[in-house]
C-alpha cells in the first residue's frame, strides 16, 4: 500500500496505531536466547527467564546503539554483546562494566514493553510511552473460553498489512477466488451487503444469506483490533458447528505483514479430540490451500493498487474500516501534538 507523500496520517497507519495490543509472533519463537523482531515500526528484543517469564525491550543498547539481541540473557536482563552493558527488563541499566558508577548506571535508558501470551501467541502492548500497567488483553471469546478449541496459523506475507485487512473484510472474494474450495462453492455471487454496528465495532454481511458461504466478517476493538468470520461446514467436517476464523495482524518492516489466523470450532470433551484429529489429518491442508490463494493475489498487487480503485457496493465494509482507521490515526496525532505542547 503506497504511503502518500508527506501524509502524517498514513505514516501513523503504516507503522501501526499506538496504545493497542498486537500479536507479534507465535509463542514458540521465543526461548531463553534473545530474539530480534521487527514489528510496529521498530525492532524489539524478546527473551525468557528460566522460569518462562517473558520480557521485551527495544532492540537498542543505550550505550552505542548495538542490538541487544546480539547479547546474552542473564535472567531478567540482557548483557549487550558489544561492551557488556546490562539492561534490565524495565529498561534500566544495571551495570556498565567498562565504567562502573558512570551516570548511565541506574538510568532508564531503553524502551520497555509489556508482553503477554495467549492462544499460542505472544502479544505486545504498543505503548506510545512507558506505562506501569497496560490495559487488559481482551480477546474474542473463541480464543479465551474453554468452550472452544483452536489452532494458530501464522504466516508472513509481503505487502502492507492493510491489504490483509481489506481481504478479510471482503466476503465476496470467497465466492470467486475460493470457489473451488470444499467449503466455499455455494452462495449468491450478486448478493447485496449491509453494515451492522456492534458494541465493539461492526459486521459487514450479505443480506438474506447466512450459513451458506463466507457470508460476513466482523471487525472488533477490545484494546486489540481483531476480525472474525464463519464458514459453514458439512457434517463430514466433524462436530462443532461452523468453522470460525479469528484474525490478527501486525506490520513488520515496510512491505511485510505478520498474519495470525486462529482456526476455531466450538467443541469440548470427546468432540474436541475428534475435531482436532480431523483437522490435522484431513482439513488443515485444504485451509492452507485457501490461504495460499489469498497470499498469491495480495503479494502480486502493486503497492499503489489502492490508489487506483473503482469500488462498488460490495466494498463498503472496506471503505468503512479505512475511514475508521484514519480517524484513529488523526486522534493519535492530535494527542501527540498536545503532549509535545504540554511538554514545552
How many β-strand runs? Answer: 18
- Strands of the widest sheet, in order across it, are 12-18-17-16-15-14-13
The pLDDT mean sits at: 90
CATH architecture of the largest domain: Alpha-Beta Complex
**Which strand-content bin applies to the residues?**
25-35%
CATH topology of the largest domain: Naphthalene 1,2-dioxygenase Alpha Subunit, Chain A, domain 1
Could you say how many structural domains there are in total? 2
Helix fraction, binned, reads: 10-25%
- String of helices and strands: HEEEEEEEEEEEHEHHEEEEEEHH
Q: Note the overall shape.
A: globular
Q: CATH H-level name of the largest domain... which superfamily?
A: Naphthalene 1,2-dioxygenase Alpha Subunit, Chain A, domain 1
Low-confidence stretches: none
Radius of gyration: 22 Å
Query: Alpha-carbon distance between the termini?
Result: 35 Å
Q: Please give the largest β-sheet.
A: 7 strands, antiparallel
Amino acid at each position: 500500500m503506497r504511503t502518500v507523500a508527506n501524509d502524517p496520517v498514513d505514516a501513523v497507519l503504516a507503522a501501526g496505531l499506538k496504545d493497542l495490543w498486537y500479536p507479534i509472533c507465535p509463542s514458540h519463537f521465543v526461548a531463553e536466547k534473545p530474539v530480534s523482531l521487527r514489528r510496529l515500526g521498530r525492532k524489539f528484543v524478546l527473551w525468557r527467564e528460566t522460569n518462562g517469564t517473558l520480557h521485551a525491550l527495544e532492540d537498542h543498547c543505550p550505550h552505542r546503539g548495538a542490538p541487544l539481541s546480539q547479547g546474552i540473557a542473564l535472567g531478567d536482563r540482557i548483557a549487550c554483546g558489544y561492551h557488556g552493558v546490562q539492561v534490565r527488563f524495565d529498561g534500566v541499566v544495571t551495570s556498565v562494566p567498562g565504567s562502573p558508577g558512570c551516570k548511565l548506571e541506574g538510568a532508564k535508558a531503553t524502551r520497555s514493553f509489556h508482553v503477554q501470551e495467549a492462544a499460542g501467541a505472544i502479544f505486545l502492548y504498543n505503548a506510545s510511552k512507558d506505562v506501569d500497567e497496560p490495559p487488559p488483553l481482551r480477546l474474542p471469546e473463541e480464543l479465551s473460553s474453554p468452550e472452544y478449541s483452536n489452532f494458530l496459523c501464522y504466516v508472513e506475507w509481503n505487502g502492507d498489512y492493510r491489504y490483509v485487512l481489506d481481504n478479510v473484510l471482503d466476503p465476496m472474494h470467497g465466492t470467486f477466488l475460493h470457489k473451488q474450495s470444499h467449503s466455499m462453492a455455494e452462495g449468491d455471487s450478486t448478493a447485496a451487503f449491509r453494515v451492522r454496528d456492534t458494541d465493539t465495532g461492526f459486521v459487514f454481511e450479505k443480506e438474506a444469506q447466512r450459513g451458506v458461504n463466507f457470508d460476513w466478517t466482523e471487525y472488533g476493538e477490545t484494546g486489540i483490533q481483531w476480525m472474525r468470520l464463519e464458514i459453514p461446514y458439512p457434517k463430514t467436517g466433524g462436530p462443532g458447528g461452523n468453522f470460525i476464523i479469528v484474525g490478527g495482524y501486525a506490520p513488520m518492516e515496510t512491505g511485510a505483514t505478520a498474519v495470525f489466523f486462529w482456526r476455531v470450532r466450538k467443541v469440548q470433551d470427546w468432540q474436541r479430540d475428534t475435531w482436532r484429529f480431523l483437522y490435522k489429518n484431513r482439513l488443515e491442508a485444504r485451509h492452507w490451500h485457501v490461504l495460499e490463494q489469498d497470499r498469491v493475489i495480495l503479494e502480486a498487487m502493486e503497492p499503489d493498487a489502492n490508489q487506483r480503485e473503482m469500488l462498488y457496493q460490495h466494498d463498503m465494509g472496506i471503505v468503512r474500516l479505512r475511514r475508521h482507521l484514519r480517524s484513529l490515526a488523526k486522534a493519535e496525532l492530535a494527542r501527540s501534538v498536545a503532549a509535545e505542547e504540554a511538554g514545552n
